[in-house]
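Model it.
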Amino acid sequence: MRMSPVLLPAALGCASLAPAAQAQEGPDFAVAHTMDVVAVAGEGEDKAFWLDNLDLTADAPLTGTTRAHGYVLVNLGGMPNDRAGTLQGVNNIEVASHRVRLFEAWIEQQLDARSTLRAGLYDLNSEFYSNDSAGLLIAPAFGVGSEIAATGPNGPSIFPSTALGVRLDRSFAGGGFARVAVLNASARTFGDPGGVDLDFHNGALVIGEAGAAGKHGKIGVGAWAYTRRQDDLAAVDAAGDPLRRRAHGAYVIAERPFGDPEGQGALSAFVRAGISDGKTTPFRGGWQAGMLVTRLWAGRDDSQFSLGVNQGYVSHGYREVLRGEGVRTAAAESAVELTYSDKLAKWLTLQPDLQLIFDAGGDADARPVLVAGLRSTMEF
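Modeled.
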């Protein structure tokens, strides 16, 4: 695969800070290229889309207790959700604009044996509201809950645009953990119009999560809130201006392996649920559940199968907006996904995927939408 000369210097950005004393260790580079072909069938004409995602990452030690991480992201291709018409999306590499972005650039300092501090451009979904057994699924709702993904002036600090932030993480005996992060409410990075937002004029997003994780699974509870009020979707004051609300929410997440996690047909299951204030976003809450089976076939150690179901509950304010447009609203948008992945070569993985969405866009009269795709991933 050909690498653009624009990307390599950016990927090296964090690694270039390493002092000469650590030069012998060198940075660790990774390149991954993902290409999706997606067909959408529902009301109207069926249509196919091509999407492309390039990840360039670099990790390097700076001192014995400090490390740096850089991540450059390049996205191209179509927007299948324009055709599907869903609120939660159908593809986790779809973007609204084609750009080269510095997705992450942070430095992590180890404070003691159990605590670390990160600062810089940071993807909150890399550690918050995440679980491994949902990682194969392609629908965006299985990445971070829709009730938080739709918040903020232009979305929180997640794919494809992050924000400046600080994250503190603490681990405890027995697998316990607690972490908290404070991030700029305006998610904007190098590559976006205007570049990184440095003035925090829209306030900050504060998020925390605590729980336990280990060989028997993971359970966690999280909460989040914005420091500045945001516009209500529907309610207005006497002057006709939107009322200002404090956006906030909470979530729970759990996963558990069954049987030998290293054996053939190893199964793990997950369930997650979240709620929000329901005033400033299209969602008042939602849930996701599913399972992942690894080493599905004998002799195919990289074969994986996953099933996921989800619902995003439409907020009352957004239903009012839809009713104003003449839409008979549904209480929730629902979806089910089936996907299978296997390596054909050390560097090549193929993944066919099927999704079926009900009440897309919160429209109770919408026909079910079928989304079929094939993902190919090359890693070097």
